[in-house]
Structures are given as C-alpha cells and as structure tokens.
Amino acid sequence: MTHQEQDCLFCRIVRGEIPATIVYRNDYVVAFKDIAPVAAQHALIIPVKHITSLNALAPEDEAIAGQILLAAGAVAEILGIKDSGYRLVLNTGADAMQTVFHIHAHLIGGQYMGWPPFQE
Ligand code: 5GP
Ligand code: ZN
Predict the structure, then answer these.
(1) Which listed site, 22, 78, 88, 116, has its alpha carbon 20 to 30 Å from 70?
(2) What are the backbone dihedrals phi and psi of residue 39, each rounded to the nearest 5 degrees, phi first?
C-alpha cells in the first residue's frame, strides 16, 4: 500500500478503519452517507481504487468510471430518491472546492434543488 493510500480518509473508510454508514458496495465502488449532508439525502460514491481526482483518471480506469455512474441509480433507489430525482456532482480542484483527494461523486436529493449552484 502506498503512503497516500495509507493516509487517505476515503481509503480508510473503504478499509473499514473509519466508520461510515455504507449504503452500497461492490468490487469497484463504495457508497456511504456524507458526514455533513448538504441536502435531505447526501451520499458519496467513491472508487475502491485510490484516484485523486478526475484529472488523474486514466484510460485503464474506464471500468471504474462506468461503475461510479452505474452505482448512482442503485444508490438513489436505496435512498428512496430514484423517482423524485437527484444530482451527481464531482468537485474537481480548487474552484469547485474539492477537499478530499480521492474521487467521490456526491449524490444529493430528497428535496428540490436550485440551479445553477453557484454561491458567493
Ligand atoms: P469535497 O468537498 O471534496 O467535494 O467533498 C468531500 C465530502 O466529504 C464533504 O461533503 C464532506 O462532508 C465529506 N466528508 C469529509 N470527511 C468525512 C468523513 O469522515 N466521513 C464522511 N462520511 N464524509 C466525510
Ligand atoms: Zn484514497
């Protein structure tokens, strides 16, 4: 295991070293509730593999990229928001306020959400 993987918060959740409310898991992805929800429903879908951001996603990660999208519908169904609607957000880099450098798709819903999502 690399030092990055050892210290990464989300790798630690994947390994079960840090508790999380896991709602979905397969060989490629893990989904768990966000600790600070921004909407009535808020889960994070992350790859099992440590990839720092979309910028580091490589052609060999094609299956992982697909699995994140495939998991979205499954997780939305588990959260009970598949039919009411939801949003998938992948914050990447400083302008998007990415704070954890292990790819994660925010799946948010359970309420009406405005668009565009900009804030001062
Ligand atoms: P970002 O700001 O990088 O797009 O999203 C990081 C997300 O991870 C935030 O929504 C934050 O609330 C969530 N988060 C940070 N630490 C933890 C944690 O220890 N457990 C869980 N479940 N979520 C976390
Ligand atoms: Zn990681």
Answers:
(1) 116
(2) -145, 170
